Amino acid sequence: MGDPIRLRRKYITPTQPWERARISEENKIVRQYGLKSKTELWKVEAELRKYRRLARQLIGAHGAEADKKKKILIEKIARIGLLPQTANLDNVLSLEVRDLLERRIQTLVYKKGIATSALDARQLITHGHVSYRGAVHTTPGTLIPKVDETKIVYVGPARVKIATEAEATPILAGQAPQAQKEEVQEVE
User: Name one GO molecular function term (predicted).
Assistant: First the structure.
């Protein structure tokens, strides 16, 4: 266990801070997945970098110990749902940041239709309206295994559906809504 006073960052900032292409690509990803800031994206990149570094080291390694570590790495990535059980280390190297972001609980809540947008999903999770495995879950960055996708449930207060313009009829002073006019005509 590390020293609790000396906390370390879980990400690495880009070496070139003002690259236009990288910044625009990061902005697209942050908007698409409803991330709070780019540090969340950099954390996911660091985790992916860790898996890829392990795969590169294991590709060159030989022996019983290396085979055991290869199997452990593939099983871990398959448990998350990024790759099938039959994957190899080359498939680990082909993983992208979007693959990991698709496994976040925030993205899964949005994809299931519980939330109307990725930012709405983030708000529902942080406010404690989403349950995962029967317990309220408040961390939007948690990676959810593929087998547990069905265990994500909305547990907050009942949400009111907002009427569209076609459904909503304006009620002006002195006028009754269309539905009430028809009822009045039927009674007479």
Answer: structural constituent of ribosome
| Mean pLDDT, the chain, integer | 89
Could you tell me if 118 and 106 are in contact, meaning their C-beta atoms sit under 8 angstroms apart? yes
Residue entry with tokens 């994809």: 111
pLDDT average, residue stretch 154-183: 62
Phi and psi torsions of 104, nearest 5°: -70, 150
**Residue 171: pLDDT over 80:** no
**Of all residues in the chain, what percent carry a pLDDT higher than 90?**
78
User: In sequence order, what are the beta bridge partners of 141?
Assistant: none
**Residue 154 CB-density burial (10 A; 0-12 exposed, 13-18 middle, 19+ buried):** middle
pLDDT at 98 > cutoff 70: yes
CATH topology of domain 103-168: 3.10.290
Q: Note the pLDDT of residue 161.
A: 63
Report which of 118, 156, 157 is spatially closest to residue 140, judged by C-alpha positions: 118
Name the residue ranges covered by the structural domains of the chain: 1-101, 103-168
Scanning the chain, the segments in alpha helix (DSSP H) are 20-33, 38-60, 64-80, 89-93, 97-101, 105-112, 118-126, 178-187
Query: Can you list the alpha helix ranges (DSSP code H) found in 10-81?
Result: 20-33, 38-60, 64-80
State the DSSP code for 135.
Answer: E
